[in-house]
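Record type: monomer structure entry
Structure origin: computed from sequence
Chain ID: A
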Amino acid sequence: MAQDGHNLGNDIQNSEPGTRIALSRVGVTSLKRVLRLQSPHKRGNTIFFAEMDLYAHLDASRSGVHMSRFIENIESISSIMAAESSPDIESLAERMALAIARTQGTRRAEVRIRAQFPLTRRTPVSGGVVEDMYTFIGIAISDGVQTRRAVGVEVEGLAVCPCALSMASEHARGALASAGYTPSQIDEIISVVPIASHNQRGRGTLVIGSQIPLRAETLVEISENAMSSGIYELMKRPDELHVVLRAHSRPRFVEDVVREMIGGVAECLPELPDDAFVLASQENFESIHVHNASAERCGLLGDMRRELSGQRNDTRGFSSLEAWLESLL
């Protein structure tokens, strides 16, 4: 009997289903919230425009989960964290996963948060102040006692095709030779004149699983530096020229970008332990093809460090972020 005197019936969710089989994930998806979290880098709350997916494992003996409890968990935990000194997206995901596992009485809960967040930057030549939007990612899984979490970013940048640039360079050499230039003159011209190539906007994703706090800004910088050049929402002409020249001086395949991301993690985050999980992926939106190009590497950072140092790596490791998360349970 409800407190207002209305009989709301039995707890159907805890009753036995007609077909007894467990479900891997049951929950709510695409739940949109404005999160106000205290930033350690500036005064006041930082606003994140977030979209969340929340799941719980459902045993074969139960008909369903309590959907309202997902929302209650979000509201209560968000309110608590808004008053703290330095919360972050991955900590929010971790606390929510733990709370869901406990309130739903399940052996597995999972939370995924994608939050839009502006970072203030300066354009490379004119020094103009711009606010570009990035996607921050917080992921956590819990069994009600233990939790495992990951933090990541999605970054867009520019990639220039090395193959097309090489062909354009050889074409230029032939044209210059036909025009009567000597080999030494051709070498000098090629060294100072930009060579054409086709380029594409790319989206890089870098996710790191570890309990060590990481600044999302650092992950953004690693991801951008892995591409031929970063890009900006608003640029003056000198900035545009700088981006184009920088990109064509650093041609990179989609595979190169992923390798550079991993190298950047190893170089810029020495404090990460070898058992930290790393996912680096890149998708290039091709400009002269109707398909996209994609590359990915994931696994334990220790294995990657050994490869980068020239050692042979025979460890099979984890095949996906999901496999690493599930290994906790």
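Annotation 1: The radius of gyration is 25 Å.
Annotation 2: Residues 1-5 have pLDDT under 50 and may be disordered.
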